[in-house]
UniProtKB/TrEMBL annotation:
It comes from the Bacteria. This is Phage terminase small subunit. It holds the Pfam family Terminase_2. Residues 136-161 are annotated as: Disordered.
């Protein structure tokens, strides 16, 4: 569908295609603010078709397929392989990333020997320790843990053994 003959209708359709509300697009097109008229105009078949055409045209321009990107990288590689090896290598690296040639980076946080991360609480105040215990105390013990029966958080052994 070609550009709409009515300049206000064209402006309205373009504003709608940009994502404006019908009321805002109506004002943008130079009409006086009227929600009902804006809504009615937005359902006009010619305007709706024009909005779809504008959106599709924008989507086609914005769509750059993986093949397009790989082709561009190959062009960069071909143009720089002799002159600048760093650029050529970068193009190859980007192409490899796009095609999933690299394994995802794995980061694991652990303490010495793969165990727990040691935390030094020797200089922590009593108030801070109480807050930490309130926050993390429920996470510290569970069924099967060494201090399963001790809910005081003091780590003392029970005397019933």
């Amino acid at each position: 569908m070609p550009v709409l003959k009515n300049a206000r209708h064209e402006a309205f359709a373009q504003a709608l295609a940009k994502g404006m509300t019908a009321t805002d697009a109506y004002l943008e097109a130079g009409y006086k603010g009227d929600r009902t008229a804006a809504s009615r105009l937005s359902t006009n078949v010619n305007i709706a078709s024009r909005v779809d055409q504008i959106k599709n045209r924008v989507a086609e321009k914005a769509e750059w397929t993986a093949a397009d990107r790989l082709s561009a990288l190959k062009t960069i590689f071909d143009g720089h392989a002799e002159k600048d090896a760093r650029v050529a290598i970068s193009a190859i690296a980007e192409a490899n990333k796009m095609q999933g040639s690299y394994a995802p980076a794995k980061r694991e946080l652990s303490g010495p020997g793969g165990g727990a991360i040691p935390i030094d609480l020797t200089n922590v105040s009593a108030d801070d320790l109480e807050r930490l215990e309130a926050l993390f105390g429920p996470l510290a013990g569970g069924p099967g843990d060494d201090d399963e029966g001790d809910t005081s958080g003091e780590g003392s052994e029970s005397s019933g053994s």
